[in-house]
Amino acid sequence: MTEALLEVCDLVKHFPVTRGVLRGKQIGTVKAVDGLSFSIQPGETFAIVGESGCGKTTLANLILSLMPPTRGDILLRGQPISRLSPEALMLYRKSVTAVFQDPYGALNPRMRIGDVVTEPLAIHGYPRHARQQRLQEVLRAVGLSAESAQRFPHEFSGGQRQRIGIARALVLQPPLVILDEPVSSLDVSIRSQILNLLKDLQAELGISYLLISHDLATVEHMSDWIGVMYLGKLVEVGQAKAVCRQPRHPYTATLVAAATPPGRTPPWTLPIVGEVPHGLDIPSGCAFHPRCPYVQPTCRTLTPPLATVAAQRQVACHLYTDPTSAAIWPPPLPPAAA
Amino acid sequence: MARSTTPAPELVLPQPVPAHKTGLVAWGRSVFRGAPVFSLCFLTLAVACAVCAPLLAPYDPIQTNRTQTLVPPSLSAHLLGTDHLGRDILSRLIYGARISVTVGFLAVFVSGTVGTLIAVVSGVVRGWADTVLMRLTDAFLALPFLMVAVLVVSLLGPSLVNVVLVIGLLRWMTYARTIRSEVLRLTEMDFVRLARAAGARRRRLIVQHILPNIVNTLLVLGTLEVGSAVITEASLSFLGLGVPRPLPSWGTMLAEAQTYVFTAWWLPVFPGIAITLLVMASNLIGDWLRDRLDPTRRQL
Amino acid sequence: MLPDTQPSNDALLLEVRDLCTHVFTRRGVVKAVNGVSFQVRAGETLGLVGESGSGKTMTCLSILRLLPRGARIVSGEIWLQGTNLVTASEATVERVRGKQIGMVLQNALAALDPVFTIGTQVGEPLVMHQNMSWRAALRRVVELLRMVKVVAPELRLYSYPHELSGGMRQRVSSAAAIGCAPALLIADEPTTALDVTTQRQYLDLLMELQQATGMAIMFVTHDISLVGNMCDQLAVFYGGLLVEYGPRQQVLSQPSHPYTAALLQSIPQLGEPRERLPSIAGEPPDLGRLPAGCPFHPRCDAALDVCRTGEPPPVFTLAQGRQVRCWLREQDHDRSAAGSL
Predict the structure, then answer these.
(1) Across the interface, do C277 and A187 touch by the CB < 8 Å criterion?
(2) The domain that contains A82 carries what CATH number?
(3) DSSP readout, chain B?
(4) What residues in A contact B196, CB-CB < 8 Å?
C-alpha cells in the first residue's frame, strides 16, 4: 500500500460568531468543517461534492494552510503541517497549489501574465533565467502562445484565463493541485477543453487533484474517488463510478437524482425535501435528518459515524447499523414518505 | 517534466486579443479620450504660472506704488488693474497661483499618504489595529476643522509649511475610510488568496497586489480633494491664518478686497474667478478620471 | 413574404419575426440579435439555450422592451396577441409587462427590493394592473405563495427578502411574476444561483404552475441538460442567431446543427462515463467582431467554403417543424413546409 500523498485527519474548523462593541460576546459557532477524514493517493483525483454551505471552501483554505484548523491535522506524505517549521511550511506551499472558480478574480488585473505565472517562483527565490525558462514550458503545456506573457489579464477570455490559472498552479511542479469548481464559471462549449487539459496534464505529470465541485457529472468523469460533504461532515466516501451508480447515503441519492439526465431513471429515487439549512442552525444528531425520508428516532439524537459498509465504501447513516436491512438496496421507502 | 507516452495536451493555441495600436498620437487619443479639455488647459496654465511665475509676471507682486493705487484694468499698463497699495493684480494672481497650486497638491499628498498608510495597515493587519485606527479616524472626524486650524496656526505661526501640514493632517480621514474598504475588498479576492497560499509575505502582498489596485481610487480621490484643499487654504488666508503677508495668495487678495467690493470691482473678482476655476477644473478632471478608470468599462 | 399582421391562429401566443437588436458601443455595433424568428403557442414551453453572449437574453429583453442603454431593436416584429411590441407605445408595453408577460430573472435577491416586505412586492402588480384593493391583493398573495409552496404564507407576507433562503426567494419572485395570471412567463436563467437539489425542486414547481395556469413559458438557460423534461420546443442560440429550432426530443436526440451536436457530445452525462470528452475547438465569438458567414464556422469540423463568406446561412425548414441555419442542411430544405409555418 503506497503512502498517501495527503491525509486529512479529523479536521475541524469552527468560526465563532460574536456580538458586541468589542466583539466580546459569543452567540454561536459556525461549524464549517466538523471532523473530516480522508486521504488522497499520488496520481489520483479525489472529489469533494457538496452544495453551498457544506464547507468546501473552508476545506480548501485549510489545506492551503491559509488558516489554522481548530482541531485535527493535515499530513503531507506523513508529515503533519501544524508542526512544520517556517522553512518546511514554505516547502509545503510549493507542494500544494490551487485553481479557483472565478477566472476573472483569480488574476491581478495590474500584472502581466508572465509575472502572474512566475510569481510563485519569485516568492520561492528562483533566479530570473530559471523563471523565464519555466514560464515558457508551462505556457506551452497549457496551450498558450509565448507572447501571452507580455499581455494583461483583461485581454484574454474566460477560458484562456483559466488556462493561465492552471499554468500558475503547475509552475512549481506540485504533487497536489486543488481544483475549486474549475469549469463552473466557463462557457459550456469550452468546459470540455479545460477538463481534457486537466486530465492530460495529470496523465503526463502524475499529479493528484482535489476536485471540489457541485456538478456530479463532471466529478464522475474526472475523479477516482468521491467524498460527499453535507454541513461540514463527510456522509459518504467511495469510488467515483460506484458511488454514482449505487449511492448509499440518502443525501448522495438526492444529488444523483438531481444530476441524472432526464429520460433516464436515477438508481434510487427519493423525494427532495427542503433546502440546505444555514450554518448556524445545524440540526442535532444526523444533520440530514429533517430532510430524510428514512428518518428514525435515533437519527435525531445520535450523529452517525463514517463507517465502512462495503468494500471501499464508507457511509455515515443509521440505515447501515443493522446489517440485515443494509442488504436490500435501494432501501424501500417508509410508507409515510412514499 | 517527465514525458510519458500519453498524447501531448490538446494544443488549442488561442490567440489573445491584439494589443492597442501603438504610436504616440493613438496613445494620446486613447488615454485622453473624453477628457474635459478646458479644465485640463486651465490646470496646465495654473501649474505653469506656479512654476514660471518670475518669467510670466509683468510686475513685482509685492512692490507697492503709491502713485498707481486702484487703477482699473486697462490694456495699456496693468491688464487686471492694481490694488489699494498699487500692486499689479495680474502679477499677484500669477504668484498667488504658486501658493494655491502648491498648497493644493502638497496638502493632498500629505493627507493621501497618511490616509493610505492607515487604511493599508487597518485593512491588512485587521484585528485590534483595525479597531484602534478606525476609532482614531472617527475621533479626527469629530474635530471642528477651523478651530483646530486656528489653534495650530496661532501656536506655530503662519507659514506655508504649517498651512500644508494643517490641511494635510486634518483631511486624511476620507482617504482612510475609502481606501480601507477597497483594501478589504481586495484581500478577499482570489488572486490575493492564491498569493498567500503560495507563501507571499505581507510586504509582497501590499506592494504587488494591493497598492497597484488602489491607485485608481487614490487618484480620483486626490483630484477631487485638490479643489477642497484650495478652498480651505483660501479660507485660512482670508481669515489671516494662512501664508503670511505680503506673500500673495488668492485668499489673502480676497480678504484685502473686502472694503473695495463696490468701488474697485477688479480687486475681488479676479482672485474669486481664479479660485472658482481651479476648483472646478480639479473636480471635473476628477470626475473624468473616475469614469475613465472604472474597471467595468475596461475593454475586454 | 409574410403578411404584416399576425395570422389569426388562436393557439399562437407570441410570434417573433426577424428580430434584430443591436447594441451601439464606442467600439462599433454589436449585433446582439441578428435575425431571430420563432413562435410560442399557448400553454407551450420553449427552451432558449445558448452560451453567454449568444443572444438569448437580449431576445427576451427585446420582447419585454427592457433593453439596456445603447441597445435598440433595429428591425423585426414581435406579435403578442395582436399587438406589435416593437412599435407599441411605452404605455402599451407597460400594460403588457406584468399583466400579459411575467418575468423571473436570474438573481432572485436582486429582483426583490430589500426594503419592502414580500406581501408588498408580490401584491404590487395586482394592485396596479387589476385595480384590487390592498386587502384583496394580500389575500391573493397568500394564495399565490401557497401555490409556489412557501410554508406558512400568512406569516411570510410580512417577511423581508433577506430573511428567506435562496430557493424561497426564487419561488417568491415567481409568485410575483404569475400574480396577474399572465399568458406568458419568461424565466431567464432562474436556477443558476441555486443549489442542484433546489434547482430540481424549482423546475418541478414551474411545471406544476404551468399545469395549473395553462400559461406558456420561455425558459432561458445556458445548461442544455436542464431543458430535458420541461420543454416542448427547443431553440438553440449561437452568435446572435437562432441556429436550430424544433421539438425538444428530436433536437436532443438528432441534432441537425453541428453546434448542437458538438455541444451535446461535449457535456459529461452522469451514468455514461467516457475516457475523453470530445471538445469544441476555439472560443465563443465576440459579437462585436463576428466572422463573415456563419458565426460557428471557425469552430466547425464540417465547414464548407460557402460557410466562411457572405451572410450567415438562411433558415432552412426541415420536416416536422424543425428549422436550422446551416448550409449543410440545404438539401433537406422542405419548401412546402416553409410556407405553412
Answers:
(1) no
(2) 3.40.50.300
(3) ----SSPPP----PPPPPPPP-SHHHHHHHHTTT--HHHHHHHHHHHHHHHTHHHH-SS-TT---GGGTTPPP-SSS-TT-B-TTS-BHHHHHHHHHHHHHHHHHHHHHHHHHHHHHHHHHHHHH-HHHHHHHHHHHHHHHHS-HHHHHHHHHHHH---HHHHHHHHHHTS-HHHHHHHHHHHHHHHTSHHHHHHHHTT--HHHIIIIIIHHHHHHHHHHHHHHHHHHHHHHHHHHHHTT-SSPTTS--HHHHHHHTGGGTTT-THHHHHHHHHHHHHHHHHHHHHHHHHHHT-GGGS--
(4) 66
Q: What is the rounded CA–CA span in Å between residue C267 and residue C278?
A: 9
In chain B, residues with a C-beta closer than 8 Å to the C-beta of A206 are 2
Distance (Å) from the alpha carbon of C339 to chain A's nearest alpha carbon: 33
Provide the pLDDT for residue A20: 65
The answer to whether the beta carbons of residues A169 and A98 sit under 8 Å apart is: yes
Domain of residue A136 covers 40-69+77-245
Residue A2, domain member (yes or no)? no
Q: What's the CATH number where B87 sits? A: 1.10.3720.10
Contacts of A96 in chain B (CB under 8 A): 197
Q: Which residue of B has its CA nearest to A203?
A: B6
Beta carbons of A9 and A37 less than 8 angstroms apart: yes
Q: Of B1, B6, B19, which has the smallest distance from its Cβ to A137's Cβ?
A: B1
Mutate which: C26, C69, C289, vs B, most B CBs within 10 A: C26
pLDDT tens digits, residue range A79-93? 898 888 888 999 999
C229 to chain A: which residues are within 8 Å by CB? 262-263
Question: Is there a domain that residue A294 lies in?
Answer: no
How many domains does the structure of chain A reveal? 1
CB B89 within 8 A of CB B274: no
Give pLDDT, residue C6: 44
A229 touches chain C (CB under 8 A): no
CB pairs < 8 Å spanning A and C: 111
Among A206-210, B18-22, B118-122, the least confident range: B18-22
The predicted-structure confidence for A148-183, as pLDDT tens digits, reads as follows: 898 888 888 889 999 999 999 999 999 999 999 999
- Decide which of C115 and B294 is more confident: C115
The answer to whether C281 faces chain B, any CB pair under 8 Å, is: yes
Interface contact flag, B131 A97, Cβ < 8 Å: no
Residues of chain C with pLDDT under 70: 1-10, 107-109, 334-341
Chains touching C by CB (3 or more pairs below 8 Å): A, B
Q: What are phi and psi of A82, to 5 degrees?
A: -70, -20
The answer, yes or no, to whether residue B271 has pLDDT greater than 80, is: yes
Assigned domain for B265 exists: yes
ipTM for the complex?
0.86
* Chain B hits for A156, Cβ within 8 Å: 16-17
Q: How far apart are CA C72 and CA C21, in angstroms?
A: 6
Does any domain span residue A111? yes
Look up the pTM and report it: 0.85
Does residue B26 lie within any of the structural domains?
Answer: no
Terminal-residue alpha carbon distance, chain C: 12
- Asked if residue A24 belongs to a domain, the reply is no
Min Cα separation A305/chain C (Å):
24
Instruction: Say if C289 is an interface residue toward chain B (CB within 8 Å).
Output: no
Max alpha carbon distance in chain A (Å)? 71
Give C281's contacts in chain B (Cβ within 8 Å).
12
pLDDT by residue (tens digit) across B244-255? 777 788 888 888
Chain B nearest-CA distance from A177, in A, is 12
- Is B12's CB within 8 Å of C282's CB? yes
Nearest-by-Cβ selection for C266 from A189, A241, A275: A189
